[in-house]
Specification:
The protein is an alpha/beta fold. It has three domains: about 5-65 and about 85-150 and about 255-300, FAD/NAD(P)-binding domain (3-Layer(bba) Sandwich), CATH 3.50.50.60; about 155-250, D-Amino Acid Oxidase, Chain A, domain 2, CATH 3.30.9.10; about 310-385. The protein has helices spanning about 15-25, 90-105, 220-230, 280-300, 310-325, 330-340, 345-350, 355-365, 370-385; strands at about 5-10, 30-35, 45-50, 60-65, 65-70, 75-80, 85-90, 110, 115-120, 125-130, 130-140, 155-170, 180-185, 190-200, 205-215, 240-250, 260, 265. The strands form three sheets. Strands 1, 2, 8, 9, 10, 11, 17 and 18 form an eight-stranded mixed sheet that branches. A seven-stranded mixed sheet has the order 6-5-13-14-15-12-16, with helices on both faces. Helix 1 (about 15-25) packs across helix 4. The longest helix is centred in the last third of the chain and has 18 residues, at about 280-300. The structure holds flavin-adenine dinucleotide. Flavin-adenine dinucleotide binds near residues 13, 14, 47, 115 and 142. Flavin-adenine dinucleotide binds near residues 143, 281, 282 and 285.
Length: about 375
């Protein structure tokens, strides 16, 4: 039986990204196995993220914006991102791009089927797919299910759920030069609710209804809200729905372990790459994948020293606590953040790249009382747990 150097259990965003990053190094000659339920052919995600300059997947960035709209509580702005670009990648472009890149490597193999077990072993790890076992030196597991999260006391467990319609209007109604990052003008219903709009051209855009809350809604409800937004806020006349997407991702400060045993490394959402307070994951997956590939290249082991991010984890927990306990409307907090700070400072903060002095500057623009109450609750919750 062939033994692989690296096995990706799950070949979605994280599994494919890691394989792609490995393929950019001399490790491209290693034996690599990618396993997924089925070939990724559907356009099942639209990933947005911001960055300065070019990223690893520039050829499949289908749109990018240097100005984005923000609609908050009594404050609207067209925000110049000051060197950042808000970028959009469609899974329907990303999957075949990575696949073409990997198909040039004869030592990269693919297996499609249901993974029923992943095992850490003394000298490596193995995966069982439809009853067949495959062994390797290192295994990267990105399978994730919300139900697999064993809730821990003192932690927050919210969901980010969204329904998006790609629409084509009869009339030219969109400005393809500007996306809408967040539109909070809709009813909040005691939760955090907003829309974002990603225009492809003057007639076509992805319009996505996003909710941060504890519970999902019915499909009819999501659909009704999207239709209402198109009518009341975008003033679309006749239009066709070309494509729909629905997603649920965790918004949690659950302590995700980086690995299971010695040879199974957890990646993607399963490895805690989803930012607890925003749900943004795609760019963090790229940073993590690059770090794993660099570590394998230089040390032969995929062990990445976690940069000290302690204060950002605490800020995330505090924001989740404000949300979960309904301490202050998040719509107003985001409004204050974007109204009283240069938008680029907020993006840098969400990227966890700001200095402590910048963090204090940002915090001074938000109300103290709910965050102090949240801090007390978070610390007390952890100590009690
Ligand atoms: C609709 C949607 C839109 C999103 N938009 C954004 C965004 O704009 N920006 C952003 O930063 N993040 C976004 N996210 C969050 C995040 O980037 C994505 O969820 C991303 O796909 C996570 O990558 P992953 O590899 O962890 O999971 P996935 O991409 O889901 O990959 C996991 C893979 O494991 C496979 N798998 C699972 N179980 C098994 C099994 N038993 N056997 C075989 N294979 C299995 C699955 O088929 C899948 O291919 C979005 C998420 C969703 C759901």
């Amino acid at each position: 039986m062939q033994r692989y150097d690296y096995i990706m259990a799950g070949a979605g965003a994280a599994g494919l990204s890691l394989a792609y990053h490995l393929a950019q190094t001399p490790l491209r000659d290693k034996a690599i196995l990618l396993v997924d339920k089925e070939p990724k052919t559907a356009n099942d995600h639209t990933w947005c993220f911001w960055e300065r300059g070019d990223g690893p997947f520039e050829p499949v960035v289908c749109r990018q914006w240097k100005d984005v709209y923000f609609y908050g509580a009594g404050y609207d702005a067209l925000m110049d991102l000051d060197g950042y670009r808000y970028k959009m990648i469609r899974a329907g472009d990303f999957y075949p791009f990575v696949r073409r890149e990997l198909e040039r490597l004869p030592n990269v193999h693919w297996v499609y089927g249901d993974i029923t077990a992943v095992r850490d072993e003394a000298d490596g790890a193995s995966v069982v797919v439809d009853g067949n076992a495959y062994a390797g030196n290192w295994l990267f597991d990105s399978r994730f299910g919300l139900s697999s999260l064993a809730r821990q006391p003192g932690r927050h467990y919210l969901l980010q759920h969204f329904k998006g319609w790609e629409v084509e209007a009869d009339e030219p109604v969109f400005d393809p030069g500007k996306a809408t990052l967040m539109d909070f003008r809709i009813e909040q219903h005691g939760e955090t609710r907003f829309f974002y709009v990603l225009p492809f051209d003057e007639r076509r855009a992805l319009v996505e209804f996003t909710i941060f809350s504890a519970d999902l809604l019915t499909d009819d409800y999501y659909e009704g809200e999207v239709a209402r937004y198109l009518r009341d806020f975008l003033h679309l006349g006749a239009y066709r729905v070309l494509h729909k997407e629905f997603g649920v991702i965790p918004m949690t400060d659950h302590p995700f372990p980086g690995q299971r045993g010695n040879h199974v490394i957890l990646t993607g959402t399963a490895g805690g790459q989803t930012k607890a307070s925003t749900g943004y994951t795609f760019r963090r997956i790229q940073q993590h994948s690059k770090a794993l590939a660099d570590a394998l290249l230089t040390t032969g082991r995929p062990h990445v020293a976690a940069p000290f991010k302690g204060q950002f984890a605490l800020y995330d927990s505090m924001l989740l606590n404000v949300m979960a306990r309904n301490r202050y409307p998040i719509k107003e907090i985001f409004t204050l953040l974007f109204q009283k700070n240069p938008p680029a400072r907020i993006l840098k903060f969400l990227d966890e790249d700001t200095s402590f002095a910048e963090d204090l500057q940002i915090m001074s623009t938000t109300p103290y009382a709910p965050f102090l109450a949240a801090l007390w609750d978070v610390v007390r919750g952890r100590v009690t747990a």
